[in-house]
């Protein structure tokens, strides 16, 4: 079960943030879009509980797009992202309305919309809550590459069923997906020669670090940039795009 660590450092949401645009419907969901419409490779970013209006998430989307991808950040919560200050609706209650498994069919519809648009290959990254959605896509052959960042709700059994190249980026200080669990994921993946994988535990960072870092924390920013670089490299390797310059936050 997700702990309070899942909600540390809540972002100040900004519906107008980012270099891209927000559309009312992409695959049936409101979404933030950025990148070239002509790109044949796309990336879906699945947010944590704070949703698609988080400024750092949109900056990540912009950086991924600048590397050559068409990027979609769907609003899986339909405007109802988690609000830490709402004492009457704690995370355990909010999750009853937004279990990750409920988002899986919606994510499939986003993939279908990308294919209809003419995209050849699709990758997906999931942060915390979003990692469970992405691993479901990876289990069902919906995507060609997956990245899980400080995952929540992802189990060893999920990892056993993954069918596409997958990268798992974990945190050293993580009560939800502790290093011991990430190492179990690596052990399982190492026995599956049919699925390429990359597993890394970032030292000195906490659950949520890659998307909920503070810009005045140099160490946190450096670790987040490293995670972003690893993620983009994974997509370049498995979605067959030529690498561009190293991104920075």
Notable characteristics:
249 residues, alpha/beta, Rossmann fold, 8-stranded mixed sheet, 7 helices
Report on the structure:
Strands 1-2-4-3-5-6-7-8 form an eight-stranded mixed β-sheet, sandwiched between helices. With 249 residues, it is of the alpha/beta class. The protein has one domain: Rossmann fold, CATH 3.40.50. It contains seven helices and eight strands. It is globular.
* Count of DSSP-assigned helices: 7
Count of folded domains: 1
Q: Strand portion, in percent?
A: 15-25%
- Secondary structure: helix percent: 25-40%
Amino-to-carboxy terminus distance: 31 Å
Low-pLDDT segments: none
Radius of gyration in whole Å, from Cα? 16 Å
| Reported CATH architecture | 3-Layer(aba) Sandwich
> Mean pLDDT, rounded to whole units?
94
CATH topology: Rossmann fold
Order of helices and strands: EEEHEHHEHEHEHEH
Order of strands side by side in the largest beta sheet? 1-2-4-3-5-6-7-8
Classification by helices and strands: alpha/beta
CATH superfamily: Alpha/Beta hydrolase fold, catalytic domain
Domain Dienelactone hydrolase: 29-237
Organism: Eragrostis curvula
Protein name: Dienelactone hydrolase domain-containing protein
Pfam families: DLH
């Amino acid at each position: 079960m997700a702990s309070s660590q899942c909600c540390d450092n809540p972002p100040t949401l900004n519906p107008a943030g980012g270099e891209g645009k927000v559309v009312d419907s992409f695959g049936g969901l409101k979404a933030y879009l950025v990148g070239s419409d002509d790109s044949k490779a796309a990336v879906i970013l699945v947010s944590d509980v704070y949703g698609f209006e988080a400024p750092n998430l949109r900056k990540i989307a912009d950086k991924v797009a600048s590397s050559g991808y068409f990027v979609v950040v769907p609003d899986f919560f339909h405007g109802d992202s988690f609000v830490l200050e709402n004492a009457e609706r704690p995370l355990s209650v909010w999750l009853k309305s937004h279990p990750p498994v409920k988002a899986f069919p919606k994510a499939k519809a986003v993939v279908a919309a990308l294919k209809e648009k003419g995209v050849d290959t699709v990758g997906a990254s999931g942060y915390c809550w979003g990692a469970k959605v992405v691993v479901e896509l990876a289990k069902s052959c919906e995507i060609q590459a997956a990245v899980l960042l400080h995952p929540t709700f992802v189990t060893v059994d999920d990892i056993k069923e993954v069918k596409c190249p997958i990268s798992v980026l974990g945190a050293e200080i993580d009560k939800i997906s502790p290093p011991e669990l990430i190492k179990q994921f690596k052990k399982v993946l190492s026995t599956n020669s049919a699925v390429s994988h990359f597993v890394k535990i970032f030292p000195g960072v906490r659950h949520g670090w890659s998307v909920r870092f503070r810009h005045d924390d140099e160490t946190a920013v450096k670790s987040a940039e490293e995670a972003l670089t690893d993620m983009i490299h994974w997509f370049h390797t498995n979605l067959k795009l030529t690498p561009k310059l190293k991104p920075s936050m």
